[in-house]
Amino acid sequence: MIDENLVQSAIKIRREYLGLNNSMNFYRKKASDVVTKLEELQNELTTIQNNLKNRTDITSEEVLKQITKVLDGTELEGKKLEESLKPLNEKIEKLGQEEAELWRNIKLKHSDTPENDIIEYVRQRLIKENLS
What we know:
The chain is an all-alpha fold. The chain has four helices and no strands. The chain has one domain: Methane Monooxygenase Hydroxylase, Chain G, domain 1.
């Protein structure tokens, strides 16, 4: 019903998607590590705040230096998270583009076939390939 080359492209895209989905644990761990570090930085800010309440001998320059250190740490953790997620985001975006292009190609080649029939055919094929 649907050109085999197009179906093979759908299978390839689905395999890549499932592979990305399986690697999500790696990215979750990275995100969890960043959250833990941010919580530590938040505790440091609380400590600074408590020190301000309990000490009168601390200068505003010292407080500013401490807060700046915490803010720099927060920014660094945010950048680490962003950098660790960048490859995942790029792969997901690429798959989305491939999927959209594949759909356009299927619709061009099989313009007389209803969309629901196309979707069902590909879905059944993915099930047959154990990719559902």
